[in-house]
Amino acid sequence: MGQRKAPKDGDRKVGRRALLIGGTVAAAGSAVLARDELARLWWRVPGVEKPRKEGEVDYAGARWVAASDANWRRADRPDDYGIDMVIIHVTQGSFDSAVKVFQDPEHGAAAHYIVRKDGHVTQMIRELDVAYHAGNRDYNERSVGIEHEGFVDRPEDLTDEMYEASARLTARICARYDIPVDREHIIGHVEVPGTDHTDPGEHWDWDRYMKLVREARTAPA
């Protein structure tokens, strides 16, 4: 699980774009660039929030259920933080209990998605925002977190439907952000530096999962 304390806005890294222009149009080009930057960054003015569509999801077929805003931080990924990783979790509980704790402002953690045993996908935090799921600020900022219903010591919880649905979800995330489909970029919570968690556990079949992700990644949209 991730940290509750959110960093100050000054910690954000806002990228600067270069514009190659001829000397005769330098002034006009600079004006266009400045106007474009202002249009993109207007919402960063104190007291102004970037427009969001209520109930919008990033993965087709997912159901939206909002996590408490105490369990994530508003961002504009990948513009301010690049996304290059998917982190796999197991809830250590039921789907309903996971939803409940992610909606609890005292919990201090939540993942972007939960995949149920029957393959149903729920999104609780937008991918452009930073979820507190990894227990490591850097990893939170650069990753999408996916929880899976069940317990690490019960292999029967890891159903075919869950593996297949999760693999399709991870494949779409990787395609969206050009993330390599390998074990350096798709990792378990246990592999995050500094974490004390063991999920997804020894029963999680990484060979099977990565094969399914690769197949879904190359399948026609």
Describe this structure in words.
The chain is α/β, with parallel strands linked by helices and 221 residues long. The chain has one domain (63-218): Lysozyme-like (3-Layer(aba) Sandwich), CATH 3.40.80.10. The protein is built from five helices and eight strands; from the N terminus they run αβββαβββαβαβα. The chain has helices at residues 26-41, 95-102, 137-142, 160-177, 206-218; strands at residues 63-64, 72-73, 85-88, 113-115, 121-123, 130-131, 143-148, 186-188. The protein has a six-stranded mixed β-sheet with strand order 1-5-4-7-3-8, sandwiched between helices. Helix 4 packs across helix 5. It is globular. The chain starts with 25 loop residues before the first helix and ends with a helix. The model is unreliable at 1-40 (pLDDT under 50).
In what range is the share of β-strand residues? 5-15%
What's the pLDDT, averaged over the residues? 84
CATH class, anyone? Alpha Beta
CATH architecture: 3-Layer(aba) Sandwich
| Order of strands in the sheet with most strands | 1-5-4-7-3-8
Overall number of structural domains? 1
Keywords: Cell wall biogenesis/degradation, Hydrolase
Domain N-acetylmuramoyl-L-alanine amidase: 72-201
Pfam families: Amidase_2 (PF01510)
Enzyme class: hydrolase
